[in-house]
Amino acid sequence: MLHDAPLADAVDDLRRGRLDPVAYVERLESRAEAVEPDIESLVPEERRWDRLGEAARNLEERFQSSAERPPLYGVPVGVKDVFHARGLPTRAGSKLPAETLTGQEGDAVGRLRRAGALVLGKTVTTEFAYFEPGPTRNPHDPEHTPGGSSSGSAAAVAAGLCPLALGTQTVGSVIRPAAFCGVVGFKPSYDRIPSDGVVSFSPSVDHVGFFTQDVEGATLAAAHLCDDWRSLPTPRGRPTVGVPEGPYLEQASDVGLDAFEEQVAQLRTAGYDVERVSVFENIAEINERHERLNAAEMAIGHEAWYGEYADRYAETTRELIEEGRDVAAAEIARGREGRRELRATLETRMGESGIDLWVAPAARGPAPRGIDSTGDPVMNLPWTHAGVPTAALPAAETDAGLPLGVQCSAPFGADEDLLAWSRQLADVLG
């Protein structure tokens, strides 16, 4: 159920006319008929392919000359079902009435449309981007979870149903499913991609991110999604890599940690300087602070909906909201302030040790068996709390063929450097 579909190749073929958008849509329709019944990555939509075919024909008529074609001309994009998208209902993986969740089209969706992309459709999410899973299965092995909450987006990209898909991350919902599904995931610096038009979870730490199969494609997408993107000269020098030693790293499973140490050894062999630095010594406190902030802001954001539709929420989501109702204002303020403190601590440690880039396991280990749980996001949490840019790169596989990813994090605002360096690391680790 896996299929090569790098975004950079699709962009080049479409803009140069080696592939026309209508033919591409027809190819994806055949692909979806073959694999979608087994992975269920897309929210069902009547007449999806008629809609897409018409949009592709309109695009061809508007841009007949290759010189006039916009940068993402004809690229089909999956949109996680927490983004509002013109013409499509938003349900956020929930049982609430769609009319309750209506809103203006997400800014990220609009940016992709203006760059020439076509909206393939909504992708499956856990309920309100929390832990209650949808039906999506991992294309590497349908008996395993694709991760959450951006499960449908990661699985759709891995299966070749679209070369680009939007996701969100409040704890680990881009990086973890990217690792489980063996694709590239990118979570930029906090608010580098605006979250307007997205059903929020915890606004203080919600990030808009996305998935591709290739780092080159991720860079192309980032240039149109991120505010004030800068083009960097190539080639880039090798970064000095930091390994976060201590109780944070010990949260990984034995399988995940063994694979990560092999990846670190590969980087050393390739000539990278690797520094082991003690950081996140208080990881239990960071985890608790982040989780309590999430619960409180979820309760605040859902106050009206929950008051009317509490019986339609899944039990796990209800428990989070009920917990959040008990979080005091002072604790919320402390949680928000802790984000800036952690970011400053990371930057201080990097400066003291001469580190350009952190590397860590992208998940505790491979995707767990079953789809009743989406896996543990604990390896992603502190980077999200600090709001620093993070990328997931495919790096290894278990003997059973399940992907094991590595995540790379750079200082706040250094998103361009992160993707430039990630391209190097992907060549070494891939």
UniProtKB/TrEMBL annotation:
Record region (Disordered): 131-153
Q: Which Pfam family, any one, appears in the UniProt record?
A: Amidase
Q: In this protein, which residues make up the domain named Amidase?
A: 25-419
Keyword annotations of the record: Transferase
Answer whether the UniProt record assigns the keyword Transferase to this protein: yes
Q: Which GO terms describe its molecular function?
A: transferase activity
Q: What is this protein called?
A: Asp-tRNAAsn/Glu-tRNAGln amidotransferase A subunit
